[in-house]
Amino acid sequence: MHAKIANRRKDALHKFSRKLVNRCGEIYVGNVSSLKLVKTTMAKSVLDAGWGQLKTMLDYKCAHAGIVFKEIDEAYTTQTCSSCGSLPESRPKGITGLGIREWTCSGCGVTHDRDINAARNILAAGHGRLAVEIPVL
Ligand SMILES: [Zn+2]
What we know:
Blueprint: H1 2-23, E1 26-30, H2 34-37, H3 43-49, H4 51-65, E2 68-72, H5 94-97, E3 102-104, E4 111-113, H6 114-126
Parallel strand pairs: 1-2
Antiparallel strand pairs: 3-4
Helix pairs in contact: 1-4
The structure holds zinc ion.
The site of zinc ion has 9 residues, from loops.
C-alpha cells in the first residue's frame, strides 16, 4: 500500500516537473529546506508534497533541456514588497505573519497575495535584479 502511494506521488511529480520544463525558459525555486521543515508542524505536508524529489527532478530535467535552474535564498522574499522593493511596516512577519495570505504594502499601497509576491521576489533574485538590497535584520 505504502509503495503504491509513493509510486503514484513520484509519477505525479514527474508529470508536473515535465510540464514546467516544457513550458518555461528558466526555473527558480526557493531554497526551502525540507530537512528543516520536517522538524516543524508542517512536516507532514512537506513530506507528502515531496519537495526534495521535485527539486531533484527539475534540476536534471532542466539540465537535460538546457534550461536555467537555480535555487534562490528565499530569506525575506515573503516580507519584501515585489512592487516597490521595500520591507514595509505592514509586511507579514514573525509567527503571527505565517497565517496572513494577503497584505497591502504601506510603502506603495499595492496588495499582494503572499505566495505570488514571494514568487516574484524569487524570480527577481534569480534574474539578479532585486529593486533594493534586502537588509540584514
Ligand atoms: Zn510596496
